[in-house]
Amino acid sequence: MNGNEFVIPTEMRALTLDGAGFDHLRVQYVPTPRPGAHQLLARVDAAGICTSLIKLIEQGPDHPLVYGWDISRYPLILGDEGAVTLVEVGEALRQRYRVGERYVIQPAVEYAPINHMERYRNGGKGVQKIAVGYTLPGHLAEYILIPEEVLAADCLVPLPQADMAAAHAAISEPMSCVISAQDHHVHLVQEKPLAARSVIKGLKPGGVTVVIGAGAMGRMHVELAMYYRPRVIICSDLIQERLDIVQRLFSARAEQLGIVLLTVNPNQTDLKNLVNEVTGYRGADDVIVAVGSAQAIEAAQTYVGRGAVLNLFGGLKRGQDVVGFDTSIIHYQEINVTGSSGGSPWDIARTLELMAAGEVDASNHITRIGDLEHAPQFLEMIKAQALDGKAVVYPHRRTTEIIVVPRWTAEDEKRYLQG
């Protein structure tokens, strides 16, 4: 196929960055890329606004994943979250891909650069990981070029359902980070004293899970935790409104699955006492710290039980990332301390499978809808901590208004795109 099914304009709108700071961030018209023989061109159907972009904007060319590019000369097209439809297939790939196929791109590309080697520091020597929305074209544009590196790293993941909502597919990347994090949980169990130990991967079924932080990522952790069917999930946050959202979104599902869902504000209720009460003073089986707080990490150590897993999901700022650990807890309680940063193509695929199976509902996590022109405003809101939940933009749907929603279903998207 040659792309004739889609009218591809010569120019497109894109969110670009040509220096460090928000003053260098703008939506502008740029030439629409055309694919080479081993490349693809896709229409961006929906794109999520990722918190990690704040660091990229503030650091500009000094960001570790930019590798010294002169972005004043070669501006970046941002956006690491999105759902796409192929509109043009390079000549050498026409036996593998078809125009109209829908995909999600895993943005963390574990592959050495192939294109534009001269733009990288030292000609790209030693670079083994590049990223979509950094030195590779991003999703915050009307079209996205999918280069050889993405395909070589198996980072183009097909949608399991052809009619999956674009906004839901677009936020599979942040949800895949949660999939990866909980996949890092490993429990050693013995059926009886003389039995060999066996391994349970993931959260402990029938156990007690504690999620510290009820922000956007914390809520994703709560929802995914239900997939493992713990006996109790405790979600803690200092902001009561967030805890109310957790109950509104997940209480019915938890009750249906026979899971006790408890929310607690540590300013009002002692979290350690609650964990002791729920577990009979044995401690929790899985504790996930979904906030970037040294205090929360240090306190979380006291909630774990013997053989538990403590997951440090929320990252700390460089220079503030050394915290105190009670090694006797690790030693005598035999706990595992783990962490994760981002996911893999498998995590994206697994997230899409769970969405298709109804085990997780992406509708629960989308709270803002807008046009590509709103992307800078959404990023300013994230920087100011004024956006709770995920923002999604539809680059081909022009609107002047930002829509605030409690959740965003496939039916909502269909009506919106027809409007």
Describe this structure in words.
This protein is of the alpha/beta class and 419 residues long. It contains 12 helices and 21 strands. The chain has 2 domains: 11-176 and 344-418, Quinone Oxidoreductase, Chain A, domain 1 (Alpha-Beta Complex); 185-338, 3-Layer(aba) Sandwich (Rossmann fold). The strands form 5 sheets. Strands 3, 5, 6, 9, 10, 19, 20 and 21 form an 8-stranded mixed sheet that branches. Strands 15-14-13-16-17-18 form a 6-stranded parallel sheet, with helices on both faces. Strands 2-1-4 form a 3-stranded antiparallel sheet, with no helix packed on it. α11 (375-383) links the parallel β19 and β20 (390-393). α4 (172-183) packs across α5, α4 (172-183) crosses α10 and α5 (216-227) packs parallel to α6. The model has no long low-confidence stretch (mean pLDDT 95).
Produce a short descriptive summary.
The protein is of the alpha/beta class. Helix content is 27%, strand content 24%. The model has no long low-confidence stretch (mean pLDDT 95).
SSE blueprint and pairings:
Blueprint: E1 11-17, E2 25-31, E3 40-48, H1 53-59, E4 76-77, E5 81-89, E6 102-105, E7 108-109, E8 130-131, E9 143-146, H2 148-152, E10 156-158, H3 166-170, H4 172-183, E11 186-189, E12 198-201, E13 208-212, H5 216-227, E14 232-236, H6 240-257, E15 260-264, H7 271-279, E16 284-289, H8 294-300, E17 304-312, H9 327-332, E18 336-338, H10 345-357, E19 366-370, H11 375-383, E20 390-393, E21 403-404, H12 410-418
Helix pairs in contact: 4-5, 4-10, 5-6
